[in-house]
Design a protein that fits this description.
0% strand; mainly alpha
């Protein structure tokens, strides 16, 4: 039987990226020792914080 998780994640999101973006992501993984999922979660948190703080408002 599988391990019970406190906060299970059932949703999967996929995206297409270029070879250059893949290389960049692999470099980040090597430098940070984090998974793609962890890096993408952190990126989403970072984007959300900046968006909510008003730093990413569209120019009128």
């Amino acid at each position: 039987m599988g391990r019970m998780r406190e906060n299970p994640r059932y949703n999967v999101i996929s995206m297409r990226i270029s070879d250059e973006e893949r290389d960049h992501l692999e470099n980040l993984m090597a430098k940070t020792h984090k998974s793609v999922s962890d890096i993408m979660r952190e990126a989403m948190e970072y984007f959300t914080e900046r968006y909510e703080s008003g730093e990413m408002r569209k120019a009128a």
